[in-house]
Amino acid sequence: MGSERYFSFSGRPAAAVMPGIPAEAKRVSAQIDDGIVAGTLFNQVGWYTKPFDADGLFAHESDELLVFAGADLADPERLNAEIELQIENDVLTIDKTGVVFVPGGCAHGNLKIKRLDKPVFYFVCHMNAGMYEWRPAEATAEKGVYAGNYVDGYKPVDGKLPEAPEGFLQLLVWLDGQKAPGAPYMELVWFKSVNDTGPAPHAHDFDELIGFIGSDPDDPETLNAEVTFDIAGDVVRTLKSCIAFCPEGTEHSPITVPSLGRPLYHFSIGNGGDYAREGNKGESNIYKPE
Question: For residues 166 and 164, what is the distance between their CA atoms, to the nearest angstrom?
Answer without folding.
Answer: 6
